[in-house]
């Protein structure tokens, strides 16, 4: 890589707090940073402290009416609409300020890439990919992923690829760029017939000049590491080579884990580590610029801190051996002894078959989108 990866973080990001009983508990971020420091991953790294996005910066992504509703919500939590004040998106004090800081954190990450200070940046506090222009959704108030991509495009990056590995469809980002041919969005997620938000079918391809730049790979419940990785490698690398992005933005939600309480895929921490390593290789292949944000993940202690410590380590080229034991106090705090779940990450490459449910999903996505990029959907070499 050459330059040390950038890490965007400040404890003030813990202020995006929807309540102690809400699944998106900021303790998962606090534990991640603490574990990464305890394992030496962040040695010599001075995290970049983000600033809240200005109102003009938020307006690039959201409407003035919606921003006004977010600001007003703490004073009238049941009467502002726009998806606010629901069980998923409860109103909390200083919500506009906290959400603006999350958006600002991903803008700071984008600026690091644009300045050439590093080729890689990780912002585990970002990843709020469900927020729409006029509505909160799925625990997300402002969409920092859209903001970061918009900033890259605005500053001269001609093509951005966005890869979303969260268990839920990256719907807010897809909608934002559904008609923009400069952005390739790829989302791998649990099948929308079985999980919220109910979108992300292979037939959702974009419109106008952007037809073919929205890619969805819906996977059946129970998909394991080996099957997930086979599906990823059967779709993502070929499309990136056809699209030739100048920057890679990835949403790295870890609610794909087999222990996550809100979904039903079967990945492990080992699978997550393999995903990050694959993304790193793809970033290198396409010029090196990689912006990684967090996202979902609701097994707050056993899963998220270990998975995102692996993400930080991967971006910094400080890969942690899976059998690495945790310091005794951390083993007690997280309830696990080491950095592995014993998951299997070896997989058979996709060979064109369609009998297995995951292979059928792969074939459906390839047949929907590959011809639009000059690729043969039935040829495993493409």
TrEMBL record:
It comes from the Bacteria. Residues 22-314 form the Histone deacetylase domain. Pathway: Ketone degradation; acetoin degradation. Keywords: Acetoin catabolism. Gene3D superfamilies: Histone deacetylase domain (3.40.800.20). Signal peptide: none annotated. GO terms for molecular function: histone deacetylase activity. InterPro entries: AcuC (IPR003085), HDACs (IPR000286), His_deacetylse_dom (IPR023801), His_deacetylse_dom_sf (IPR037138), Ureohydrolase_dom_sf (IPR023696). GO terms for biological process: acetoin catabolic process; epigenetic regulation of gene expression. Belongs to the histone deacetylase family. This is Acetoin utilization protein AcuC. It comes from Kutzneria buriramensis.
